[in-house]
Amino acid sequence: MTTEMTAGVRETMRMLEKNLLEEIFIARDSDFFVTRPVIEAAEYRHIRVTYIDTKKSLGHICGIANGAAVAGKIRQSG
Length: 78
Description:
The protein is α+β, with helices and mostly antiparallel strands.
């Protein structure tokens, strides 16, 4: 089974608002003003926030060529 991920602030926030994520990933080298709304939304919904060292590493985890400041792990149904 493959883990589905979101990448980027907009996509991750949309999925958070729909309560479809089980974990959020934040790149430590991202600007706080970019990541803060996602962190606050995740904490409000009691969703685990995990920090990754770099945007490049987080992008690699998500399977994208570019770096990502924010990503989310989509909740598995069933």
